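pasting for ref
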Amino acid sequence: MTINDSNPVATPDGIRLTVAEPAGTLLLSWHEAVRQLDSGQFDDSLADGLQMIIQLQWAAVHGWFVTTNEQKALMWRWIIACLFLLEQAEANGTVEVANEDGGTDLAVIYSGKNGGMAVYPASERMSLATHIEGIAIQKYGAVTGLERAILLYEGMAEVPPAGGPLRLSQWGREALKMLHDDFIRMVNTEGMPAEPTAH
């Protein structure tokens, strides 16, 4: 079942989903909806994730769901990663990449001044969390840093002047390109960074 198939509707008590098996409806709590975004539930269908974001925003506007700064940052991180991936997929396409399970995953192609790489929703969110939230928190402390990170995320997106769907702002696009180009340059000169060791 995809979210689009389930006709998600924000209600005062959560997001109501219509389900086929068993026939009826399912009520998803606000916190569970945010958790699903963060856990990658919608990484294979960004459109479904955007539908969930729309319902969460609708609920916040109506006062049904009061988001914490952590939840706001998580939702904005998800939105910015999604907008970047959609933009790159339109510009450069997608590619099937072998995974550790012996199958393949669909990745978006990023192509920049230093080369190209496959990018995925989870890795984009992790990179944003590290380079936006992590640096802001390190510099300004947990509370103020997270507030500043949210403002940065908001500045990375815009509604076109003539109307239409949310998109990356010019500043947001350039910041993400710089982040990816710097990573590719590092890989080209120093090789892949060592994977963290589990302790």
